[in-house]
Amino acid sequence: MAVAAPFWHPSMARGFILDWDGVLADTKLDFGPIRAKYFKGERVPLVEAADMLERDRRADLERELYELEMEGARKATPVQGAHELLEWLEMCKVPWAVVSRNCRDSIFEAAKRSGITLPGVVLSRDEGPLKPDPQALWSAAGAIGVEPSLCLMVGDFIYDLYGARRAGMRAVLVERSNPDWERWADASYGHLADLVASLGAPEPLVPWEYRELERERGRGWLERAWEIEAALPETSPEILSVALAAAGLGVGGLRVDSKAKLSLEQWEETPFLPLSLVDRPLLSVLAQVLGERYPQVMISRDGAPLELPPRAGMVEEAVLSWMN
Fold first, then answer.
1. 116 and 15 share a domain?
2. How does DSSP assign 230-277, residue by residue?
3. What CATH number did the domain enclosing 134 receive?
4. Do residues 155 and 303 share a domain?
């Protein structure tokens, strides 16, 4: 089945970035004893929290963490569906990378034990920075030659999802069921093998940015709103708020005069914008503002038959009138 915007499916990604432990290889690591020893059992990010320790104690933690990961790597087995996923990526010629918080030695040892051929791009904690820092994912995307917005992060932990959201990537959660984590994913699969099966028979999924809208107003609303193309009120001080309101209601096409630039008044009405964007083309400012939250919205030049009102509070009424 063909999948088109505003819907989405993992098979649409041009590049895959895969977590390692728990996604491709199962090493059954238990960090509980280390957390108990060094952090009174608190569920802290071990690598980052190590910086709070004295030098000798930090060195002990790093050594024990390395030994634990190597022990797990020597017992590693492939996650069910891992080989099939890599076969699909090869068949479809989709470039991929591994980005992991594990040490590099353990990744290569686990790959050998589980019979997985690693890609040319493997970023471990030895290279840094670490997820959820988006730079880790941007580095991987750059290394495989795919724009971050066209990449998919597949992980089994909240840091994978946080990192993907911050990097402007799609995100899939596998091998875990956690509602608090799933809310940050574009899709969730109980098992990696379920994701693989879905890749062979893609169905339209509501992506992260429209999930609440679809829940409140229904799938039909999203389908109809997506067909709307409307001109933005380029002289309105609230133009960016209007654009966000329209995109939040599912409007799929926004148009603005190619010569229009961000005014000081428009910057003043949009507190989150840096002052350096004043006098920049509105096209590029809109792309920056909308791109991370509503990446599928089309922003194009010049007018459209429908015109959005100058105030954000009036947008819903206008959209309702166009849909009725």
1. yes
2. EE--TT-TTHHHHHHHHHHTT--EEEE-TT-B--HHHHHT-TTS-GGG
3. 3.40.50.1000
4. no
Residue type, 141: A
Same domain, 223 and 309: yes
Assess whether pLDDT exceeds 90 at residue 170: yes
Cβ–Cβ under 8 Å, residues 174 and 192: yes
Distance of CA 268 to CAs 41, 241, 271, 277, Å? Answer: 47, 12, 6, 11
Q: Which residues contact 293 (CB under 8 A, 6 or more apart)?
A: 209, 244, 247
Distance CA 173, CA 156 (A): 5
Average pLDDT over residues 174-202: 95
Dihedrals phi, psi of 302, to nearest 5 degrees = 65, -175
Q: Which domain holds residue 147?
A: 10-28+75-200
> Stretch 121-134: mean pLDDT, rounded?
94
Give the pLDDT of residue 228. 96
Encoding tokens for residue 207? Answer: 């992506």
Question: Same domain, yes or no, for 89 and 176?
Answer: yes
CA angle centred on 151, ends 165 and 87, rounded to 5°: 130
- Is there a domain that residue 64 lies in? no
Peptide bond into 309 cis (omega under 30): no
Residue with tokens 């993992």: 10
Name the percent of the chain lying above pLDDT 70.
Answer: 100
Residue 40 forms part of a structural domain:
no
pLDDT band at 305 (very low <50, low <70, confident <90, very high): confident
As for how many domains the chain has, the answer is: 2
Quick one: 19 and 129 in the same domain? yes
CATH code where residue 288 lies: 3.40.50.720
Beta strand segments in the chain, E: 15-18, 25-26, 77-78, 96-99, 122-123, 151-155, 170-174, 187-189, 229-231, 253-256, 298-301, 306-307
Residue 114 banded pLDDT, cuts 50, 70, 90: very high
